[in-house]
Design brief:
The complex is a heterotrimer of chains A (285), B (255) and C (289). Chain A is built from twelve helices and no strands. The longest helix of chain A has 36 residues, at 58-93. Chain A is mainly α. Chain C has a single domain (60-277), classed as Orthogonal Bundle (MetI-like fold), CATH 1.10.3720.10. In chain C, helix 5 packs across helix 7 (177-205), helix 5 (135-161) runs antiparallel to helix 8 and helix 6 packs antiparallel against helix 7. Chain C is globular. Classes of the chains: A mainly alpha (285), B alpha/beta (255), C mainly alpha (289). Chain A binds chain B through residues 95-96, 167, 169-180, 183, 187-188, 191-192, 280-281, 284, and chain B through 55, 57, 60, 62-63, 84-90, 92-95, 97, 99-103, 111-112, 114-116, 150, 161, 164-165, 168.
Chain lengths: 285, 255, 289
């Protein structure tokens, strides 16, 4: 093919409409966006309608949001340091065989569904047997710990994946200047990893905040064991409140505003996390 | 074995294995003090492995096994009482890909001294200035020490890495392929720098280029597939290569 | 020769050993609870499978398991064509402009959205629309909608992992964008894509919230016809008087095994994918750290 005809071809693609692969891909993208927009719009319209038409139980909404955040933060406070230490162990300290074993273990176990962890939690905490009922003081730490157990493997593997992307030649340069292993971790790996640690924190927060099963099961168990707890909305997180609302027909009007709030929170958290991940340390090879 | 009057590094029966693969086979070599020794050979001949094992950087890989001895001023750097970080401070390695830390120019050069306990800001300023001058970079960067080091040109990055290595006051400098990926002008600058540095330091260079080795080195070690084929003063090796393989390599039959 | 992992100082030694200790302790807890599940659940599970074909009691694990898997793969099949199309478009065709940034942000944000939001969508929008008889369809659609943004961003990031040089060289040889995508990029990104998709499915398959929500649309019905393993576990744990019954342990173990197998397959695919694409490390004979 001559240069002339190639030129013509290039010029023509921009001008005339041709039904080609690009059109199909565009249609697929558009369809995807429409579906996703439908979800968002559905929730937003529902929320706006509730806000305009009904007198909202603001107390319930606020309690649920605060509960979600507090429980999620508790879980991250436990899981993040442990995850960080595990990531340091795997990427900086461990010989390759144990590192591989460790990595495979946590990566595979990060897929364990939260409903299983909630079940194990109930078995171990023995909620059914205890008749004292449950104050939030007892429910919160239990929920946070179980959520931490759920999120720890994915947090650790998130961090490991990011630590591995730090260019090996940076570490090599540091060692070549006579740095000890510890100095290399503190002066080279940590500054490079700082932003991913923050990102991991937000990642964990989003994961734990959105989880339904664990808190729901704890709450159900508590509600069975004492009548007062079943009326006590102070124990709700946003997802549990939505599920209970839909299941038992309570608070229908609050469901959509709560869903919208958790959407906004999750968007904010994930975009904050993404901002932290844009760091120049990993650009190098 | 060629007689070397003041060996700085004595290599005795050094073998390096990566898993089952033997990269270096029983190398024995005296590296003279205050001179530039060029290690030449094709790719895969073991040049980088040799350089890395001279400062114990090889053991950062998991499956590497090193046998034999490397004596630095008569003390075995693989001996039981040798301190790895001290060895690496005294023997600086400049890797083939210059990789400055993503920090400022100043912080890059000050990284090493800080590791070894220099805290005083004025002393650091002094060290940074001296090292950059030695590396011939001072005039180009003196007004902008706080700038981001990754924005420098490739040639400047290479010299920054040399300055960074000089800042810990090493005794031996190992330079892996000094002109790797550089344009001729920058490469010439690096060669001038090497000629200057060999007045004060013991240099070991790994290089592919015969011309470069001829221009800057005093001694040449020729490696082939992990074996030391020939070692001697540069002029002798060029004029009267003893081994057929060396002769082939020098005359360019392999390149 | 000194061990390369040995610390150089006394405090260093303490710090290292505590890092190692805490890491293995955390992993130990994980291994312990899975081990506990296996210990308590293995017997019941074997019994269920052995007697399953003949017994007419409340043994419903086997059909439940099949239903869970088929719903999961059905949802993924529904979402996959759209997701791959959109991912390829965003990565290879769309121009770098603000619109693309917005689309990426929207897809990424929705992929990380809590599952309860999709459950609410299924409960409030799809369930009333399709009516009571079509729970399976409603659940399929809900999980497809939930998988969609995840799969789009998976496709996008899989394609972005492919080195630019592949695109450049293929285009330089006169290939069209389409040929480049399918001939040069997809063979390289495909494994990564499949792996990540399997991983996403492992997560979606174990999630309870959407099923609970859809089941909640008909409270009297309790969602018997769309019951999946996680939902079944949740429901029977919450409703039975005894938490630690063998039936629950068997169900939980089966669920864990399913998720772990999916995730394990994903990991395997990814690892072989790594070695195919060739790692960029300086020397491949050893691994850095």
């Amino acid at each position: 093919m001559g240069i002339e005809s190639t030129k013509e071809k290039l010029a023509s693609t921009g001008q005339t409409f041709r039904f080609g692969p690009e059109t199909i891909l565009k249609l697929a993208t558009a369809a995807t966006l429409v579906v996703l927009a439908a979800v968002v719009i559905f929730v937003v319209i529902g929320a706006v309608r509730s806000v305009l038409l009904v007198d909202l139980d603001l107390d319930l909404i606020l309690t649920a949001v605060v509960n979600s955040l507090v429980i999620a933060a508790g879980a991250v406070v436990v899981a993040l340091p442990v995850g960080l230490l595990s990531a340091l162990y795997i990427t900086e300290l461990a010989p390759s065989k144990p590192a591989k074993m460790f990595w495979t273990t946590i990566k595979v176990l990060s897929a364990v569904p939260s409903v299983v962890i909630g079940f194990i939690g109930l078995v171990w905490l023995g909620y059914y047997e205890s008749s004292q009922g449950t104050s939030p003081l007892r429910l919160y730490p239990a929920a946070s710990l179980l959520l931490a157990l759920m999120v720890y493997p994915s947090l650790a593997s998130f961090l490991i994946e990011h630590f591995r992307r730090i260019s090996p030649s940076l570490r090599a340069s540091s060692y070549a200047l006579g740095a000890s292993r510890w100095q290399t971790i503190v002066y080279t790996v940590y500054p490079a990893a700082r932003s991913s640690i923050a990102a991991a924190g937000f990642f964990g927060l989003g994961r734990t905040m959105g989880d339904t099963a664990i808190v729901l099961m704890l709450w159900q168990a508590a509600a069975r064991s004492s009548l007062t707890a079943s009326q006590d909305h102070r124990l709700f997180t946003v997802p549990t409140a939505i599920v209970m609302g839909a299941e038992l027909g309570w608070h229908h009007s609050e469901l959509f505003p709560m869903a919208m709030l958790i959407m906004i929170l999750s968007l904010a958290i994930s975009s904050l996390g993404r901002r932290f991940m844009q760091s120049h340390w990993r650009v190098q090879e | 074995m060629v007689l070397v009057r003041h060996p700085k590094l004595v290599v005795r029966n050094l073998s390096v294995y990566y898993g089952d693969f033997q990269a270096l086979s029983s190398i024995s070599l005296n590296i003279p003090s205050g001179a530039a020794t060029a290690v030449i050979g094709g790719s895969g001949a073991g040049k980088s492995s040799l350089l890395r094992s001279l400062c114990r950087m090889n053991e950062l890989w998991d499956n590497v096994r090193t046998e034999g001895q490397v004596l630095l001023d008569g003390h075995d750097i693989y001996g039981p009482d040798a301190d790895v970080t001290e060895v690496r401070r005294r023997v600086g390695l400049i890797a083939r890909h210059p990789s400055p830390f993503p920090k400022s120019i100043f912080e890059n050069v000050a990284y090493g001294p800080r590791l070894h306990g220099v805290r005083d800001r004025r002393e650091l300023d002094e060290i940074v200035k001296r090292s950059l001058k030695q590396a011939g970079l001072w005039n180009e960067v003196k007004g902008r020490l706080q700038e981001f080091a990754l924005n420098l040109s490739p040639g400047q990055k290479a010299r920054l890495c040399i300055a960074r290595a000089l800042a810990v006051q090493p005794e031996v400098l190992l330079i892996d392929d000094p002109a790797y990926n550089l344009d001729p002008v920058s490469a010439a600058k690096i060669e001038d720098l090497i000629l200057e540095l060999k007045q004060e330091y013991t240099l070991v260079l790994a290089t592919n280029s015969m011309q470069q080795a001829g221009r800057v080195s005093d001694y040449i070690a020729f490696l082939s597939e992990g074996f030391l084929v020939e070692f001697g003063p540069t002029s002798d090796v060029f004029a009267r290569p003893k081994d057929k393989r060396t002769e082939d390599y020098i005359t360019g039959r392999f390149s | 020769m000194r061990d390369r992992h040995s610390p150089q100082t006394y405090t260093g030694g303490i710090i290292y050993s505590s890092i190692i200790l805490i890491s293995w302790l955390a992993a130990g807890i994980l291994i312990f609870y899975v081990g506990y599940l296996v210990f308590r659940g293995f017997g019941p599970l074997v019994r269920f499978f052995r007697d399953g074909a003949f017994a007419e009691t409340d043994n419903i694990l086997l059909p439940l398991w099949f239903r869970t898997l088929s719903l999961l793969f059905g949802g993924a099949l529904l979402a996959l064509p759209l997701a791959i199309g959109a991912g390829v478009y965003l990565s290879e065709y769309a121009r770098e402009n603000r619109l693309k940034q917005w689309m990426l942000a929207a897809v990424g944000g929705l992929a990380e959205m809590p599952p309860i939001v999709y459950g609410l969508f299924g409960w409030g929008a799809l369930a009333p629309y399709f009516g009571e008889g079509k729970q399976t369809l409603i659940f399929l659609l809900t999980s497809a909608v939930w998988l969609l943004p995840q799969l789009v961003s998976v496709t996008y990031s899989a394609l972005k992992e492919v080195p630019v040089s592949f695109r450049r060289d293929s285009l330089a040889l006169g290939g069209s964008r389409w040929q480049t995508t399918w001939g040069a990029l997809m063979p390289c990104a495909g494994r990564f894509l499949a792996a990540e998709a399997l991983g996403g499915m492992a997560r979606v398959g174990g999630e309870t919230a959407p099923v609970i929500m859809i089941a909640a649309a008909w409270p009297s019905f309790h969602g018997q016809s769309l019951s999946t393993l996680p939902y079944h576990l949740y429901r029977s744990v919450v409703e039975s008087g005894e938490v630690a019954s063998p039936h629950h342990f068997g169900t939980a173990l089966l669920l864990v095994l399913t998720s772990v197998c999916l995730q394990g397959a994903a990991l395997r695919l990814k690892r072989t994918g790594d070695s195919l694409a060739g790692s960029v490390h300086e020397r491949e004979r050893g691994r850095w750290y």
